[in-house]
Amino acid sequence: MSADYLDLPQLLAARGTVRLPGSKSISNRVLLLAALAAGETEVRDLLLSDDTAHMLAALRTLGVGVEQVADKAFRVVGVAGVFPLREADLFLGNAGTAFRPLTAVLALTGGDYRLSGVARMHERPIADLVDGLRQLGADISYLGQEGFPPLAIRPPMPGVVEGDGLGENKVVRAIRVITLRGDVSSQFLTGILMALPLLGSETTVEVVGELISRPYVELTLATMALFGVQVVREGWRRFTVPADSAYRSPGVVYVEGDASSASYFLALGAIGGGPLRVEGVGRDSIQGDVRFADALAQMGAKITSGANWIEASAPGGTRLQGLQIDCNHIPDAAMTLATTALFAEGPTVLRNIASWRVKETDRIAAMATELRKLGAIVDEGDDFIAVAPPASGASLHPAAIDTYDDHRMAMCFSLAALATPLRINDPQTVAKTFPDYFERFAEVTEPVPVVAIDGTSASGKGTIASRVAAALGWHYLDSGALYRLTALAARRAGVGWDDEARVAAIAGDLAVDFAGSAITLSGEEVGDAIRSEEISAGASRVAALPAVRDALLFRQRAFRRPPGLVADGRDMASVVFPDSASKVFLTASVEVRAKRRHKQLIDKGNAASIAALSLDLRERDERDSQRSVAPLQQSADAHLLDTTNLTIETAVAQVLDWVHKVPQKG
Ligand code: DC
């Protein structure tokens, strides 16, 4: 995906099956423990994404043998606790699941390392982890702002640390109990626990303050157990890694599907009808975010599950209901509840989500800002967000959603497409955990259908398209009118038709309303004014400007509302609605078109000459088909309809026949 936005059409329904990508949290834990273990591990179903790429690259930089052996399978040659490279610079992007545990492991193994990430990573606090590690003798310093990455790690300070006789790289601090704050990120505890077996001696971590995101700590303990280390715990307060713990490869490890990624599809099923099934996680999952399905069930969704799958459908006969919920146990999947709330009756209140503020972005602020763009009613505080759909049954309105370099923002907001067409800015941010998210999304969703009718001037497009729309009971978009309105508005503002930047600004701000067949511009009826020969010529000029076409693109797509849209123009099939399943290209001889236009003008009491009109049509055809952007062309997948010898009724019947023959999805 190279575009810096993705326009999602409004959706009618969602159903189908999605095979989930591997869990990010499990993938990065397993990779690190496989690297630290004795023996070789084959990791299967690994997530291939930005965050795991950072972990893989870091391990290779540290000298670990990592080899891809199949599509999603890697062989990791364990180093038995001692990285071959004792000095390295590691760049870890915005991958918290790589940065925190690597910090802990490198600080306790001894060596000279520098760890850095993207700008946002340098705004995410890490002081609690560093404070915990310093109690074990680690030598860590902040290279930028105190308390935040980037970090420099040096071998533990002499005198504070003693060797245990097992090797110069082993570090043991006399103090066996350390304290660690657990209320900012559970990844600090995860990082330290994963590093402690490298010490060889018994060490206890006492958690100070409320431990958040507990299921992720469970995941850590389960993964450590898989590699042969049993942590002894007293509730959520004390965790002890016994003496002589050491990681051993279990041989082959399968990574579960990502439960957080599952949340988007389960919500789609609950909102869009379903059934929508995710495969790769199920009832027996070790990931906390599978509990998201329980929250959906509390909202009224129908949920069923098996050992390795979960399925969601909409409640029968009623709407989803708003929910009040403490989200400590599902911090990531809880974000999905915030956009699901757009479809629920009454407000949804998500509590205990302070950790959102230190994630990929300040997720509470980002979520509130973007939900408001759609018309939702939002209230937020330090550690909660309350979301309700627009008041008194009003519908959500189209908007361009910013994603703040946060994969989950992009994925959460895709759900809003079940209520409105929308634009997702920087959609490629999903690569952090789910590179082909939008492809999977398209496979299980049914967009509002659109009939795209393109053709030359006076080929009969407008008449045929509006009658097809009436016959189907669908909306109608006369896209040429938008170019005409732009030309008219520019003329009235005294802006030249070649002044690309200013005409584009005018196109972006058009205060236009299409009510039935009436067209108003800033409140004034302009149906006739935009059809004059002068404005026709102006429309053709402004339509050749790329910035004007860009400015009108989303506005045209926003017309695609249920139950369907018939759109006419020059680039409906090629640019505006390339996914249309019904594309028609209309043409007719210049002579016949000139006669039709002549009759229209004479009927309105205007003088006209057929010869002059023919010449004008030829010139306009030439300009519309030769321009560099979105030229008038028949798409390869469009039906050609030559109306030279057809009545309007016959042409309409032919188009309807093509529309009805389109196979239905799902
Ligand atoms: O269809 P029409 O004659 O009302 O279109 C007016 C002008 O706008 C015409 O010169 C072509 C241009 N146009 C376009 O470039 N792309 C469209 N989708 C529709 C119209």
UniProtKB/TrEMBL annotation:
Its main location: cytoplasm. Phosphoenolpyruvate binds at K24, G96, R124, Q187, R363, R408, K432. SUPFAM superfamilies: EPT/RTPC-like, P-loop containing nucleoside triphosphate hydrolases. Signal peptide: none annotated. GO terms for biological process: amino acid biosynthetic process; aromatic amino acid family biosynthetic process; chorismate biosynthetic process; pyrimidine nucleotide metabolic process. The keyword ATP-binding applies. GO terms for cellular component: cytoplasm. It catalyses: 3-phosphoshikimate + phosphoenolpyruvate = 5-O-(1-carboxyvinyl)-3-phosphoshikimate + phosphate; dCMP + ATP = dCDP + ADP; CMP + ATP = CDP + ADP. Its EC number is 2.5.1.19, 2.7.4.25. ATP binds at G455, T456, S457, A458, S459, G460, K461, G462, T463. It is found in: Cytoplasm. Residues 451-660 form the Cytidylate kinase domain. GO terms for molecular function: 3-phosphoshikimate 1-carboxyvinyltransferase activity; ATP binding; CMP kinase activity; dCMP kinase activity. CDD domains: CMPK, EPSP_synthase. Belongs to the EPSP synthase family. Catalyzes the transfer of the enolpyruvyl moiety of phosphoenolpyruvate (PEP) to the 5-hydroxyl of shikimate-3-phosphate (S3P) to produce enolpyruvyl shikimate-3-phosphate and inorganic phosphate. HAMAP family: Cytidyl_kinase_type1, EPSP_synth. This is Multifunctional fusion protein. The lineage of its organism: Bacteria, Pseudomonadati, Pseudomonadota, Betaproteobacteria, Candidatus Accumulibacter. The gene is cmk.
